[in-house]
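Exercise 3.2. Students should predict the tertiary structure of the chain below and write it as structure tokens, then compare their answer with the key that follows.

Predict this chain's 3D structure.
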Amino acid sequence: MQVYADNAATTRMSDKAVAAMTPYFQQFYGNPSSLHTVGQQAAEALADARRRVADCLGCSFKEITFTSGGSEADNQAIVSAARIGERKGKKHIISTAFEHHAVLHTLKKLEKEGFEVTLLDVGPTGTITPQQVAEAIREDTCLVTIMYANNEIGSILPIPEIGKVCHEKGVLFHTDAVQAAGHLHINVKEQNIDMLSLSGHKFHGPKGVGVLYARQGIPLTNIIEGGAQERGKRAGTENIPGIMGLAAALEESCGHIDEDTARLTAQYPQLAGHAAGVVDVPRYIHEDGQTTANKSVVVDWYYKRPDENGKLRLHYCKLCNGVVLYASQNDPALAARGLYDHGKYPFVFDPLFVEEDSPAGFGYIDVMKDCQNAIDRMNHAMDENVLLASRQRYVLSDTAGVNEEELADLSRDIVHVVGRLNEDSFRPLQTAGLQGNSLSYRNSRIEELKEISGNRDLTQGGTTGGVTAASAIAALQEAGSKLSRDMLKSAYRAFAKQCYLIIELMRQFYDEQRVFRITGQRGESEFVPFSAQGLRAKPMPAVGGVELGSREPVFDIVVSAAKKSTFSRLSQNETAKECYKLGFFDPANADAALAALEMMDFEGVEKVRARVRQNGTLAQQLVQLQGQMARLSAALAQQPGGTQAAQDTAGLTAQLPVAAAARAMNWNGKEVK
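Answer key:
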């Protein structure tokens, strides 16, 4: 029996790759550059493969160029970065001593053209450190090119960290990922990679086909002259069968990197034999670059069912691909009791606008999404138009004889031409500007978005009519942001529901005493020990032989904002001063003040009413005390020698209103008890 153990050199093609290639040899054999039906069939397949490869790498399909293999991709990436640096006066390149010959030989060639190359030494673990790269980067460094995984010893290099160093230094970063693609997780955006090379035959795809990823905005230099294939970045008719095989093999290999379903099966043996795909996985994925091959959807299901006495109990079930992994009703400890004693679902919906027959409804973002998408599209169109208008473009005939590379190189003073130029073979291409109605449409959608979101001048405290009083501004804000108020009130209600759920969970599960830090209104901290004993039901004593059952505490939770608008606070201060001027806090005016306050509504009105009632009570007590003192003074005056005592008592009686008023107005800064 033959055993093949040289997969680092090449791999056997997978059955999926072969099946993907077969139709494009004889059935869909067209040239994707042709405009007829057969050619367009090939063009559609090419576009589909490009998107699938981009998804595996976490990038846009526009950033993918198909090549003849990893060596060509390495060459084009390095030469392109070198030409970019050369135009900026930067001719220093950093690499390692154990790169593939496709990289090392290209660097040797560039050295002959005047470039300086630094090859970093590899450590005893077969890798290099980001610090080595950072120390080697100079002002004239234009490129760092380091392989992802070594083809000889298999060491994996810290690519994301190296890429981060390069981006911080403003240097392009290329990695030869020929040995890593299909075997390691690669996301070029997350891993700070500007350019990446891979080859199909390293992950069970066909030979003779590769990929170059180049971040959008990096101009590639053609190393093969010819037609305008691959959007002018790589000449030569595309190898459609090979590209289809590469895309299929890469998808399959990336799907096997993390055997999610296999791990689930190991944890839940009952899942064995149930393949992924019962639930449509991709529709639950909302991020570009996420592969769903060999993934499984695990569903957490909460439901209610009656117990033996007819009371609804909340239960929980974990499902995967039609198989029950766990169910609380099958758990002896929870079958009769349910998952939670409170019997409620462990989540709270906070819909701003309730939708019929749905607990979720739709919210603030949904309301504004249509306007925002329209604005984004117009902004993108404006950006594209400005970029096109700022760049000189030309219509160039194949017979013009113009050196296209020199024409595109803005640093060149001379562009060589073979033969004569005329308007038929060479002329500037004018970019039409955006029409005025496009700008008007964008501005109208912006105003619509402001109106929908309540994001107007009044809601931000700004005014255009000269209003400066804090109370007036606060009133305008109150009138101008009803949507914001509704949203906040809805959020407060939802948060109160969450607090109730938390209390119920504490009631059920807080068996051990805990210490909580309570922050007061003035920021002071108080540490309070707490256990669930005070929350749980306590049996009531029997009365007349009748069992009264048990009682447990319930709560009324009110949620309010911790911080107020500056204008709201100023307005409230103005209200307090106005109440003081009107004599609301004079104990003698308590009844009239309370009558007025009953018709008023402002924040904190209940506290004011309580203080006025307290002052009124003091006033009544003062009148009673004055009457008692007057009677005592009269009785003393009738006694022999009691004239002086009566006069002293009368003087004390006269001082009582002053002392009572001082306490009522809280002049000493202490609460009246």
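Discussion points: Confidence is low (pLDDT under 50) at residues 275-280, 463-468, 664-673. The longest strand covers residues 298-306.
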